[in-house]
Amino acid sequence: MSIAWATVVIVVLLLPGFAFFWGLYSPNQVTREVSPASPLAQLAGVVVISFLVHACAYFVINTRLCVGPGALPATPCVDFDEFAALLRIEAFTLPGTPPRTFRSMLDSYAGWILVYFATIGAVTGLLGFAAGKLIENGYLSGFTRHRYLFMLERGRKKKGAELVRAHVLSRTQNLNNVIFYDGILQDFFAKADGTISYVVLHDARTSTIEITSSGTLHSDTSTPLDIRGESLGTKPLLVITSENIANVYFEPLNEVRIESGDDTDALDRAIDELEQASARTAGDR
Amino acid sequence: MRVLKDKDRVLYDKLVRLAGGNSQIVLKVLSNPHRSSVDLRTAIKEIEALRNSQKMSAAPSPSISQAAPA
Questions:
Q1: What Rg do the C-alpha atoms of chain A give, in angstroms?
Q2: A:67-96 residues touching chain B, CB 8 A cutoff
Q3: What pTM does this model have?
Q4: Does residue A201 register a pLDDT over 90?
Q5: A15-25 vs A101-136: helix axis angle to the nearest 10?
Q6: How many other CB atoms are found less than 10 A from the CB of residue A79?
Q7: Contacts of A256 in chain B (CB under 8 A)
């Protein structure tokens, strides 16, 4: 019981560290969905951040907020002796013994304790979020573990359309011919160590690469997987998992800038004219 | 992680439709190594030019079709 209580108190005390890492991962879709590469190092980070935050909060509260000229009225100071009693085995009231002082302390200051943890949890969560945004935008590149993942994500955040073409060499082969896919990268998922878990290609095509004694020979033509090519709605997707991926070559395409709404109207008009002309030609036949 | 925005996917599909369903034309226009970006109107013109040139080269030449019976 006492050990469990001490564990609960320690976990609550580590709340600022957990809040910081939650905020750190929240803006970053690359690493948010994967477990940390080193859980032990992250736990150490949680402990260090929590210790620093509590130390700073202790200093600010006990030297500025509860005493002195700028003190907020009715703000209580942090009593470290009372707090330390919470962690000890004898802190619990045994049957037949008089209640100890910390019980009245908890009764009196439960609201303040809740406000304290809510405040420092929110502050450290926001600090983590700010750090995550800085990493994401390239300002803290030293903390970036797998930079190519951020390169892939960059296009999604641009105002214009920046597509990434993926050339995927598969492990499917017959004699010296290896199946090759290429298409517009739609979704991407990486494992904690940065290796590819799967890729999703939009408008995928397939071709072959022949491995010869003098090098590799790419087939002249590639075949769209959507052979009919008639679907005007969402096009079919190709999902390739890591078991079938030998390697991937990512090629960022030119960003398409849309200056105004007139540009998209011009595109719609050009498509209409083309399709009307095609319909007339088909009707003449 | 989502890489392709929905509006970008719609734009790409429209460009492929403009290219007569030939996505290779769109990829050729957007893979120009001499520029990092292109405005949409320029991309439309380049796609139409490539599409028309491919159509012309694919169409049988009248002189050849006339020469064949001879």
A1: 30
A2: none
A3: 0.67
A4: yes
A5: 20
A6: 13
A7: 11, 30, 37-40, 43
Higher pLDDT, A136 or A212: A212
Strands A255-257 and B37-39: parallel
**Residue A169 — φ and ψ, nearest 5°?**
-90, 120
Written as one string, the DSSP assignment of A113-134 is: HHHHHHHHHHHHHHHHHHHHHH
Closest Cα of chain A to B56: distance in Å?
Answer: 15
Are A265 and A275 contacting, i.e. CB atoms less than 8 angstroms apart?
no
- The ipTM of this complex is 0.80
Per-residue pLDDT, A33: 45
Q: Does B48 touch chain A (CB under 8 A)?
A: yes
In terms of Cα–Cα distance, which of B53, B17, B27 is closest to A185?
B27
Helix locations, chain B, DSSP H? 6-18, 23-30, 40-58, 62-67
B-contacting residues in A 224-243 (Cβ below 8 Å): 224, 229, 232, 235
Nearest to A202 among B4, B31, B38 (CB): B4
